[in-house]
Each structure stands twice: as C-alpha cells, then as structure tokens.
Write a structure and sequence with these properties.
The chain has 139 residues and is α+β, with helices and mostly antiparallel strands. The protein contains five helices and four strands. This is DUF559 domain-containing protein.
C-alpha cells in the first residue's frame, strides 16, 4: 500500500485556521456531527482535501458537507463540487440559515443520504428536496 503524499502546507494551515473560527451554523452542525452523534457516523471538521478544505467529511460515506453563507459564489461552489465529485466524493450543500432554522431537517437529509447511499450526487439539490445542491442554488 502506497503512503499518502503529504498535504500542502497552505491547505493544512487553512484547515487549522478554519477550525479555530467558524460561523454559528458551522458550530451548530458540528455539535450534532461530532463524536459519532449522528447514527454512529464519524465526521471530520475542516478536513483538508487539496486544494480545498471541506467543512465536514465522512470517509465511510465518501461524503462532503458544505455550508454556504451569503459570501458564497455559485460558480465557484459548482467548480469545487465538480472537482470533489471527480475524486469519487458525494457533496451535500446547505445554507447557513437552513442549519440554524431547520436543524432537524438538515440532519434528516444527511441521515437519508447515509441510508440511501445509492442516490446519484446529481440528484442532490436544494430546490425541491431536503438535500444540498452541487450547484450552490438556494431555496
């Protein structure tokens, strides 16, 4: 088995910095994801995935969860999602306000994904479903 190449220093430093800060929505979701609180699934917070840092990552599901605030750019989010999908990862996106106002629905969407892992990443959209959007579109 080949060892993983070392992570770029810039990506590691960015991840460390992001772990010490964070939005209210990031803290709220992390409270529910940490320590295997959500159905025994192990999530990592601000996980380096060069050249990106994923808000949350579950290796068991190959699932990246991204929280988008008002500062997010739809085109950049779409490019990022496509790059992660090319690595064989699934991406769920939620708006910060969804996490704060509809925490239960967000957690249920994550659980539904975990239980029905056969769902195609392209079917995960914020419009019309509880899942996050690969294109960063909102409700």
């Amino acid at each position: 088995m080949n060892p993983k190449p070392p992570l770029p220093t810039h990506t590691l430093n960015t991840a460390k910095s992001l772990r010490t800060s964070g939005t209210d929505a990031e803290h709220e979701l992390w409270y529910h994801l940490r320590a295997r609180r959500l159905d025994g699934l192990k999530f990592r917070r601000q996980h380096p995935m060069p050249p990106y840092v994923a808000d949350y990552y579950c290796d068991e599901l190959k699932l990246v969860i991204e929280l988008d605030g008002s500062q997010h750019d739809e085109q950049s989010d779409s490019i990022r999602t496509q790059a992660l999908q090319r690595q064989g990862l699934f991406v769920l996106r939620f708006w910060d306000n969804q996490v704060l106002q509809e925490t239960g629905a967000v957690l249920e969407a994550i659980l539904n994904f975990a239980r029905h892992r056969t769902i195609s990443p392209t079917t995960l959209t914020r419009k019309g479903t509880p899942y996050g959007s690969p294109t960063g579109e909102g409700l």
